Amino acid sequence: MRVGVNSLFLVPGKVGGSETYVRGLLTCMAGRDGLELVIFTNRENDELFRELLNGRERVEFFSLDVRASSKVARIVGEQTRLPGAVRRAGVDLLWSPGYTVPRFCSLPQVVTIHDMQYENHPEVASPLSRRIRSILVPMAAERCARILTVSEFARDEIVKCLRVDRGKIDVTPEAADAAFAAQTGADELRGALKRLLGREASYILSVSNTYPHKRMDRLVRAFGAIRSRIPHVLVLVGFRGRGERAVVEAIADLEARDRVVRLQGLGREDLCALYQGAALFVFPSVYEGFGLPVLEAMTAGVPVLTTRSAAIPEVGGANVNYFDHGREGDLEKKIVDMLALEYDERSRIVSAARARAAGFTWAKTVDGTVKCFRKALRMGSGE
Known about the structure:
Elements: E1 2-6, H1 17-29, E2 36-41, H2 46-52, E3 59-63, H3 71-80, H4 82-89, E4 93-96, E5 109-112, H5 117-120, H6 127-143, E6 146-149, H7 152-162, E7 169-171, H8 186-197, E8 203-207, H9 216-226, E9 233-237, H10 244-252, E10 260-263, H11 268-277, E11 280-283, H12 292-300, E12 304-306, H13 312-316, E13 321-322, H14 330-339, H15 343-357, H16 362-380
Parallel strand pairs: 1-2, 1-4, 2-3, 4-5, 5-6, 6-7, 8-9, 8-11, 9-10, 11-12, 12-13
Helix pairs in contact: 1-16, 8-11, 9-10, 12-15
């Protein structure tokens, strides 16, 4: 099976969990027996994919002169240049892991739709972006032989919003990078944390771009309310999104603004160190197609406090703690309670969460993805 991979949507460092999903899948998928990959790249990500898959067998690259940092240029390139490139590459099937597909493509196609965020939380995107997705995502769902998504919650959302037959959608959960489970030596970890934080301190960690539905401003205000009861620093990791103004205002209202550390653009080693050194990981989001940061924290061995919203309980199960985002003061209370856990109870929570996280692997995700591809090919051949 010769599979084309439409990576034109991916601008490194700008598409969040979708990039982690593609990188994790392709790294595990490349070289698999019976599978050939042709990666269709853009100006911004061609080097990334060539380095990521350097030396892997049965992997080819087809570079398109498309500037993906311009959404309009990317969409035009996907609709006009990609179909011809796909024909020339001689692939059997085209997989588009970023919501949209070329309209005129005679081959069987599979699309990954990670969630329906643009429908349920339209405030996270610009009017142009919302308009583009409102046209192209339904078209992709209709045109493709199969749809992939990352959780049962996301499948339900796709069925509800796009009126798609549930049987057309395959669920293949994401996984955390194995690097999060590899424990860093104590001296190395201490040095990395001092470099990143500029101090030695116990800290609460949250990893999320500042989109409105992530509720990072709520976490900052909760921290402000309990700051006198705990010695910890609050560390926020992520790029500035459309909810940035609320976060900035929440920080400005703090009397202890120097106890909030903001970081972005971190490499994997630094991010692993931050997870592993944290006293507590808090993820206050109310809408996630999957919730990968929760799984990364579980894998790294840090207690997790999050919401029961969207797909998050599918990831955390009974092995993380939850707060009620609709109940006044519940986040503050749960943070204080979790920071006060005895060593044995903390160890029990961490061990159980790690065991659950170990069940999410990229190998399983690849197995499910390849099965989906084969279904699409059979449908294309009329079987």
